[in-house]
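This entry is set out below.
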Amino acid sequence: MSTALVVGGGPNGLAAAVCLAAEGVQVTVLEAADEVGGGARSSEAIVPGLLHDHCSAIHPMAVGSPFLGRFDLRRYGLTWRWPEVDCVHPLDGGGAGVLHRSVDETAAGLGRDGSRWRLAFGYAARRFDALSDDIMGPLLRLPDHPLMLARFGVPTLLPGSTFARLFRTDEGRALFGGVAAHAFRPLHYPMTSAIGMGIIAAGHRHGWAVAEGGSQSITNAMVALLTDLGGKIETGVPVRAAAQLPPADVTMFDLAPGAVAGILGDRLPRHVSRAFRRFRRGPGAFKVDFAVEGGVPWANPHAHRAGTVHLAGTYAELAATEREVHAGRMPERPFVLVGQQYLADPQRSVGDTHPVWTYAHVPNGYTGDATAAIVAQIERFAPGFAERVVGKAVRSTAQLATYNPNYDGGDIMTGAKDIRQLTFGPRITLSPYSIGVPGMYICSAATPPGPGAHGMCGANAARLALAELGRA
């Protein structure tokens, strides 16, 4: 029987393990932390019974994931829940861009931009399930649907700032810009439309869902499936050197490229080691969870029903903020993302006290305390918020890196999503999961298609390994 070792038990490591085990490979997962899950973990915090997601929280790219769809994790307790409104981007004065699962409902709320929103996202939303076969894998390969991919893909090459000019209203530009800013990149850079377009199209097809019982439920379901397939998981086992790796036919690394280079040392080809050690990091996140009595008192009524709220003001203000962060300067008013998962999954609350999940974009390795800036941004669009806070829990950029070493400097994207790294992954190659050592692969969010609980980095790497084992 073929054997496989997976180093790192985040969603991608678990996905790789499941795909290998499903084909009869004997799999062992080694996780340095005391529990697997990476960013897809949840726990009670602040108030007993109040459930908070540690990092990954809203899952538009996971609901329709080919990996999750293949294995139907509903059998293992994974249930998706949807808020009434997917996302709201409020503006000063009370207005807002409002993103619904329905393209037509979203367009109807955007006035003069309605027809343009339909033009931009209607086609991709209708065909997203077919498109995902191509966009959820390496970009430089023969696509299954070349004409469809071309129609969707050409606009993704544009800077977000160029694409945003399609919209004539402040609401339309801000709504698109806030989603595009999930890339953690200055929006005037090429290809900064890509992540925004992908998330919006996926959301219009599948919605911005949350996992019932927290993102931990995604991890729990994968662990249960892997166990049924005969896989083994060992926690509290850090791997720092190649000598610690047991012999295996396949070794998968759900780690950042620099960590892989550190473990393998001279076993890596020199050009691969050089690329992995020079892998560029993106800006950081500064996370604050709040316990809020009565919920957030938003000025905009749609925000009271939204699973996600983006706080950045106008598109111009957002773009300026992202430039500052990329340049290593902490803005006075950072881009703040607010998650209200309890609206879709009420069991996360305790009575009228609700968990509110937030993080701000900050420079990589930011050593300051962004808590006051986050509170101020929420107060800007929800006056009286601070008076309702009954507790909070903070994770700085350093604490995020301790929680998950893949998040070096608070970089929850596992690497800057610039043109080269978004296209190729950790190094310039047509095989982004290969590391130049026979039988060894990298499957972390540093590889295509990138971050999320969709598991596709791991699934894609496992497919390559199985092909090289002669099992695909």
